């Protein structure tokens, strides 16, 4: 197989990644071709390792190399708190903040009727089974989906499904970011900040 075909195939595969268009894929492919050797082989081996070793945690559905994952196995975490997020990257973001020490459940997407994504396409039934189990110690579910139409739809649906279990359901706060200027905030952000105000 010629090197031209190999480069074309690489560009084609890279352009399938989310957020990578054909021009960016071409730049990445040419960068990798110029680097040859160890760096490219290390990247290829990392991709193979991910394909061979990474799976979903059978409990929380986060990505992991060990099942159950490190969060589910950590006895120092608060088993009474469960944070529901849309993606594994949301777990990483919350963990970077360092303020949450409970458990997680990853849905792997949002409800979106327009795109044909319903409850059966997400890990919602797994969440409900987890909450209805006899050995559950969860007393509060924090819904931490993004603040957009799909995130709000998903949050409302989850709240309706969870409340019959007698478990407290809360939603992450939204509003002005730390260090943000009020004069530059949009109307929806200001409205949410006022609705979510707390006593000092």
Would you give an account of this structure?
With 200 residues, this protein is an alpha/beta fold. It folds into 2 domains: 3-53, Helicase, Ruva Protein, domain 3; 76-171, Dna Topoisomerase Vi A Subunit, Chain: A, domain 2. The chain contains 8 helices and 6 strands; from the N terminus they run αααββαβαβαβαβα. A 4-stranded parallel β-sheet has the order 4-3-5-6. Strand 3, helix 5 (88-97) and strand 4 (102-106) form a beta-alpha-beta unit. Helix 1 (3-14) packs across helix 2. The model has no long low-confidence stretch (mean pLDDT 91).
Features:
alpha/beta; four-stranded parallel β-sheet; 8 helices; Dna Topoisomerase Vi A Subunit, Chain: A, domain 2; Helicase, Ruva Protein, domain 3; two-stranded antiparallel ribbon; 200 residues; globular; 2 domains; 12% strand; 6 strands
